[in-house]
């Protein structure tokens, strides 16, 4: 029974992590859009790096459609 509870909790934690990453993805896309609009090269680079990391994490969690 404990194993079942542990598996369910782990699954719930992964779902929550995926939702958080998707929200962060949306935020970083908006940040990138603003940086591109303002031609802010530093912010563009930072947003792209964050987006790359989020993408990698989502791939690890097998959450990409």
Describe the protein's architecture and organization:
- The protein has one domain (2-60).
- It has 2 helices and no strands.
- It has helices spanning 2-38, 41-60.
- The longest helix is centred in the first third of the chain and has 37 residues, at 2-38.
List keywords for this structure.
65 residues, mainly alpha, rod-shaped
Topology:
Elements lengths: L1 H37 L2 H20 L5
Termini distance? 32 Å
Strand content: under 5%
Reading the helices and strands in chain order gives HH
The mean pLDDT is 92
Helix-residue proportion: over 70%
What structural class is derived from the secondary structure elements? mainly alpha
Cα-atom Rg, whole angstroms?
A: 16 Å
Shape: rod-shaped
Poorly predicted runs: none
Counted by DSSP, the helix tally is 2
Please describe the biggest sheet, giving its number of strands, its sense, and whether it closes into a barrel.
none
How many beta-strand elements? 0
> What number of structural domains do the residues give?
1
What is this entry, summarized?
With 65 residues, this protein is an all-alpha fold. The protein has helices at 2-38, 41-60.
